[in-house]
Amino acid sequence: MDFGLSNEHQMVQRMVRDFAAKEVLPTIQEQDRVGGMAPFVIPRMAELGILGITIPVKYGGQGMDYISLGLVSEELEFVDTSLRVVISVHNGLTCLTILQWGTEDQKKKYLVPLAKGEKVGCGAFTEPGAGSDFAHIQSTGKKNGQEYILNGEKMWISLATIADFAVVTVRTDQEPDKAYQGLSTFLVDLDSPGVTRGDIHGKLGVRAGSTGWINFQDVRVPAKNLLGEEGEGFKVTMSAFDSGRYTVAAGATGLIRAALDASKSYAEERNAFGGKISDFQLIQAKIAHMALDYQAARLLYLKAGWLKNQGIRNTRETSAAKWYATDASFRAAAEAVQIHGAYGFSDEYPVERFMRNAKGAMIYEGSNEIQSLIQADYALDKRRDKKIRRELPQYDHQTWT
Amino acid sequence: MTKKILAYIDHFHGKAQSSSWEALGLAAVIAKDLGGEAAALVLGEGVNALAESAFHYGADQVLLADNPVLKEFRPEPLADMIAQAAKEYQPDLILFPTTSRGRTLAGMAAVDLDTGVMVDVIALDWTGGEITATRPIYAGKLMAKLTCSTTPQIITLRTRAFDKPEPDTSRSGSITYLDVGVDTDAVATAISSLQEKGGGVSLSDASVIVSGGRGVALNPSLEPPGDLDEEAADIWKAEQGFALVQGLADVLGAAVGASRAAVDAKYIEYEHQVGQTGKVVSPDLYIACGVSGAIQHLAGMRSSKVIVAINKDPDAPIFNFARFGLVGDMHAILPPLTEALKEYLAG
Amino acid sequence: MKIIVCVKQVPDTAATMTVDNGAISWGDAPLIINPWDEFAVEAALNLAADQGGEVIALCLGKEGETEAIKHALAMGADSAVMVSDPALKGADNVAASKVLAAAIQKIGDAGMVLFGQQSVDTDTGLLPVQVARLLKWPSLTLVSKFESVNPGDGKIQVLRSMEEASQVVDSDLPAVVSVTKDYGEPRYPSFMGIRKASKAEFPIWSLADLGIDPPSSTIGWPEVSEPVQKDVVTEIIEGDTPEEKAKSLVEKLIAEKVL
Q: What would the CATH number be for the domain defined by B4-186?
């Protein structure tokens, strides 16, 4: 069992780390204060191929594997969560979902420009009245000849006002046997008539990002934009979460590392009671927990990434990685604030931003309460993953590059 | 026994780098200690004045080549002359200042004279004529002691690591003129023009930095023009404050730095930012004015040799890291400080 | 035009350096390409693109330590050569320069050899100068700009930085150039480049392959140590007036020899 990162992975890690440190870090504190995504970020990530990193070259991507996607997420969130959110919704919820469920035509039309970074994608699933209870979403899609008419509102959608396309799940069968059976997922061009969107302000965290709402008012979507079959929307959405959730897990791991590094730096500089506070056991205990959590979170997401590479179903592992890493990142960030004392309470230091950012990840991409229910179901043998009609493609160096 | 020490006088159009005199000063000290002689090597065009200065700074002898082919810096003809001078004079030790040119010429001399070169040396031991050089490696994270098994020993000295001697204008000595056999056409390079270096010292290279923090805008006795809104008034006050910082920097030939807070408040451009997310600097002298000393800032200037902090707040964290602290209003302290330094440096 | 870029491997600049039993140690910090060399690789790639040519990365190092070469390849270098030989352990700058010069001659037909300005470990900046001297090629140090390159005529014009001014230097080719950070930001390795580089194969030449005996080194390192950490003793300058404090500070600074 080789727990080391390959040479290729190390180079990917270094490249993204350098990019984020050189080009984003210098202004991120300011950007967070001002709010909103800095205009250069997404085009620059597109230019560097980051927006298509885990998509086969023949679909316009860079042909790297799923572990690379995790490493990219970790390195981006080390600088700020808003960067990793782009990966989660564009690469994860959108690109990988199309890779998994799309027809060749859909891949040509949507995946290629997305992977090249010419277009930006987002996932529109959550609604004002339904998050965890996804089966009971209210948005509808009514079949009308060769089209579906979409109505409803999606909320808390990252990149809502920036994206060109969205993966949207709505209720297409108003009287299914079971609630989760009546859903369908569509690829929607957000420039379509009837689509309105806006930004959400006043968030606790991820302020340097873009979060918004999308309203569909009689939006006409071609039937050929169905992702998967009618009625498969729940499965498609859960697949999307397996992809997005993985990047959240990896990203939160990066946040733990950021909190750890900041705490180490500060503790080695700060003097009190005649010594450096890094010499005091209570501070050391906090740092030890962060370091341990980093090790654990890292192993969890890398294993999930490895399983994705092998084409092995990994809903359980990805959920576990997300749950662990996000809980741990909030703990780490909060302790980092504590270690910084009064300075932690000020935006002169990054740790308060880490803490505010970390909280979001405990809520989105499947709240941690949902993750714990998922884990209980697996642990108690109440849940076995059945094969789904379309699995996330295994990484294949030959065909992907 | 080390008897003859040759110091290369690095200059630009006849104006010596002051580290050349540090090298000559050291040569003289070693020569005195070991009972030898210190010589200066002056190459260029119109450099007789340098020869005179060399005597003032401790040379017993000057080896001089004055020739148009040596006017502009080109490594090849200069290196040829150095090799020639070394073969004639047979020094035991050749000292170069570690300037852009000194480093190059020392490297070539080592090849020409079949010996080694020790670069960027900060301390030298010559007990019993055996030389051991100490130099920093890995950006100063480690120290190495070096020796060389052949002669001449060639060493480049770090700037300001050795004292510049007091010039003694009564001293003089003999000049040996070197034959310049180098043919201008044989040199593969030609200098077609010179460009002035852009104004302002680069932060990363500066040996002295004066920085302003948020306190730069907090001058209680300043009244901004009435027509400015709050943010513009704040920036106006900061500009006045940074003018004081610049004034001090000008006198010291220093670069101007700033804390994150000052940059975020738009008092100064980001390129001046020192700190974790700005530039990391390690000047010999860092004067922080109205800078609280947040950890991020400290991360950028911690390894400065001497830190001076000027801040109204006696509890500012920077006072824990400064070598010298002045508790007081920077707006009141900078003008007299600038004056006092101006006087000292002129005299 | 064939452009050779010399690259070196160094410990990550953030590494904590220690001395363990007399030997330099960087713990488990990774090895990286010498950051200064990235600028040289960038320059080489741009020149090759402008002039039509190939970029060959040349590295003198320990077999298996391939990070520098791989980074250069990932940035876009066309091929690489490694020179490695146990006899080169402890080689000083002159010895290393002799080996590089021999390798450059074995590669043959180079129009230009580029180096980074210096390396972050031993920081001497001597190799570009010494290699030039050994090859008897012009040494164009501290170049921040390539004003014009004319391989057909064998001419080049560069901007060289010195402390007081910059020189516009006309030179013959081939030449050995060292590139400064002012040249411009080096590109990141592309993902395609990273993939190619991680699979790349390149020859490893020993001294026998170069046809030279181990060059002798004259520089010895009798001791390496960690610098003594002195705690800063803060002195608050007293004075009744700002003028007094200012004067007192000046005196202290003179005594500290920082003026």
A: 3.40.50.620
